[in-house]
Amino acid sequence: MENEMAKEPEGKAWQTDGADSNVQAQGEGDIFLSRLARHHDELRWLYMELYGNDSMFAELCDRLRQFYLERNRDLRFRDRGREEDQDWYRKNDLLGMMFYIDNFAGDMKGVESRLDYIQQCNVNYVHLMPFLDTTKGRSDGGYAVSDFRRVQEKLGSMEDLESLTAACHKRDINVCMDFVMNHTSEDHEWARKARQGDGEYMSRYFFFDNEREPAMYERTVPQVFPTTAPGNFTWLEDAGHYVMTTFYPYQWDLNYRNPRVFNEMMYNFLYLANKGIDIIRIDAVPYIWKELNTSCRNLPQVHTIVRMMRMIGEIVCPGVLLLGEVVMEPEKVVPYFGTVEKPECHMLYNVTTMATTWHTVATRDVRLLKRQLDIVNSLPKEYVFLNYLRCHDDIGWGLDYGALLPEGIGEKSHKQYLNDYFQGYAGDSCSRGELYNADPVTGDARFCGTTASMCGVEKAGSERDQEAMEKAVRLVLMLHAYMFMQSGIPVLYSGDEIGQVNDYTYKEDPDKAADSRYLHRGPMNWKLAGNIRRRDTVEGRIFQGLSRLEQIRKAEKVFVSNADAWTIETGDRSVLCIGRYFDGEKIIGLFNFSEHGKKAWIHETDGDYVDLISGEESKPDEVEIPAYGFYYMKKK
Ligand code: GLC
325 C-alpha vs ligand 1 centroid, how far in Å? Predict the structure, then answer.
């Protein structure tokens, strides 16, 4: 980096838009060349291994340079800052929020006008849910993209996106978007040409003119949507071909064996990065490489592609992070970080911890969660996880069933129990929600609902039960307090900050009715958000409770991502204890997952402590914790 700085001509070429003058272009080009030089050999090696195509590689390099030169001055400046502070996203100051643009504020301009609210939420990372062109009724919530270079008309335009990202950057807010790279919509230009029989475009997808090959794949490839979209292929009557459709029939899987697909998708990625995106969420990434007689998940070539994306990002736009969407068990997730020398994603979802958290809510037994946190805490500290309670998707019950078996808990019956519990069928459940993709053959099902509904806010509200509401609010706050205590970046699901409940109106919309994930994708209730300053309201209590936690998290350095983190045995099955230590500072978090008061049999008698929430002196030594209570005890 020092060298690159030295090559920059006086007068800071990156303060202009590049190619305006030869001298400046020269300086810009040097930065590009030195970044390319750093990665060239490995990039070329991997590209050749996959594609063996020299001219396509040369084209890729040319286009990288173009995208670099087109990247605007502010973004290049951002890149430079981040290159010099490579740990910029590993601190304790990032808090994310994800939302659908229309649900949150109508359109992009609406989001821009709500940035004050976002800052009131202490949020400085917004994940804009899919906003690229898609076909109404065949969109999978925007995950079926028909044009990677066009914003859905109802949400705005590319200019609006640029204006929004610039406005966010002025306020130090990072912007995340989805890059749906596994498939395109059947309405994408490539798909339309392929459907008409254009061989070049057919080769960008998986087309079969016989039943035999699809049937061979079906033998080993699991189903993603067994009830809403069974199978992995769709018969196209007009084209007389089967096409591979792992997700919905209108989402055609791209064939990354074709270097044209890889190159063009990289150009789309860079085009979007140049609109001011800071974090690119690579959607459904484990699925992008297909191979007969395999599960078509997590194949080695997927890692080659992600590694190439990482290098391409570092060459053109090093300020941009890759967030991998790998909703799988830890052994499959962790390889997507790559190695220290050859990193892949900057960040990954902490999905098993999320699912295990809800298991703990249902069972009031923290043992599996403790085990899961021990696994995560033992990983290298460079790994950054995205922590969350809820997101736009269902919860799949991907737990460590091997660890539950000795307790006599079997996978099938336990999934059934969790689904019953969260639908509110079990006696002690206050949850409300619905199943998702219940598979009649395997008996498997996933679950949908908002945090508040799953914690009892919806039930208590509809029954006007004050006491139950009290408990529900306490549970919401305790879960967030625990989530914030994990290493990584916490991301809120919009609406959770005011305890928003399930939205059942999706059932009346024919485009949504079949997909129960819309239950937790309701519009932001701005009327209720008007209560955030009123402590006598549910919204106010949750919002202010979270605010307090968020402020503490940002103020205390023990929350940095690479602090030591560990769990402590509490002697009570319902009480979780997490310790964090960094640079002479130590904090002990206690979290009671039971609706009854409990005692944590811990003995941290190494000094005086203060509870950061109440500001009172405290002693992490045999601590009484009220129902769904928590403490953040900091050593003085
Ligand atoms: C990801 C998204 C999900 C979508 C799928 C297909 O898993 O999170 O919402 O249905 O990809 O693109």
Answer: 9
d(CA 286, CA 333): 9
Alpha helices for 124-233 (secondary structure H): 158-170, 189-195, 199-202, 212-220
Q: Nearest C-alpha to atom 3 of ligand 1 is from which residue? A: 393
Residues of the chain under the 50 pLDDT cut = 1-26
Query: Ligand 1: residues whose CB is within 6 Å?
Result: 140-141, 143, 180, 247, 283-284, 325, 392-393
Return the residue whose CA atom lies nearest to atom 4 of ligand 1: 143
pLDDT for position 581: 98
Catalytic residues: 283, 325
Altogether, the residues listed in the chain come to a count of 636
Residue 327 alpha carbon, nearest atom of ligand 1: 7
Q: Which CATH number fits domain 563-635: 2.60.320.10, 2.40.128.460, 2.60.40.1180, 3.20.20.190?
A: 2.60.40.1180
Cα 142 to averaged position of ligand 1 atoms, centre (Å): 9
Residue nearest to atom 11 of ligand 1 (CA): 284
User: Which one, of 323, 290, 291, lies nearest residue 306 by Cα?
Assistant: 323
Domain with CATH 2.60.40.1180 in the chain: 563-635
Please state the atom number of ligand 1 nearest to the C-alpha of residue 248.
Answer: 6
- Report which of 429, 427, 469, 434 is spatially closest to residue 449, judged by C-alpha positions: 434
Give the ligand 1 atom nearest the CA of 182: 12
Ligand 1, residue 140: give the atom nearest the CA.
10
Q: How far is CA 171 from the centre of its chain?
A: 22
CA distance 582 to 577: 17
pLDDT at 37: 97
Q: Separation of 170 CA from ligand 1 center, angstroms?
A: 31
Cα–Cα dist 568/590, whole Å: 9
How far is it, in rounded angstroms, from Cα 540 to Cα 473?
11
The neighbouring-strand residues paired with 491 are: 96
Q: Which two tokens mark 204?
A: 């960008």
**Who contacts 46 (Cβ-Cβ below 8 Å, separation ≥6)?**
304, 307, 308
Of the candidate CATH numbers 1.20.58.100, 3.40.50.1950, 3.90.400.10, 3.50.50.60, the domain formed by 189-253 belongs to 3.90.400.10
- Contact criterion met (CB below 8 Å) for 111 and 97: no
How far apart, in whole angstroms, are the C-alpha atoms of residue 495 and residue 498?
6
What is the rounded distance in angstroms from the CA atom of residue 108 to the CA atom of residue 91? 29
Please give the pLDDT value at position 484.
Answer: 98
Protein residue closest via CA to atom 12 of ligand 1: 143
pLDDT of residue 166: 98
Provide CATH 3.90.400.10 ranges for the chain. Answer: 189-253
Q: Which helix (H) or strand (E) holds 75?
A: helix 73-84
